[in-house]
Amino acid sequence: MTLFGDGLEAAVQKAFTRPAPKGAPAQMRYLVRQLKGTRQVAQLLRVSQRTVERYVKGQIRKPRPDLAARLEREVKKRWQPQIRAKARQTAATTGGIVIDTRARIGYTAPVGSTDDARVRHLTVALPPQYAARLFDAQQSGAGDQQLQQIAAEGLKEVYFQDGGRRAGSLEEVRFTDVEHVEFDL
Question: What ranges make up the beta strands (E) of the chain?
Answer without folding.
Answer: 97-108, 118-126, 172-184
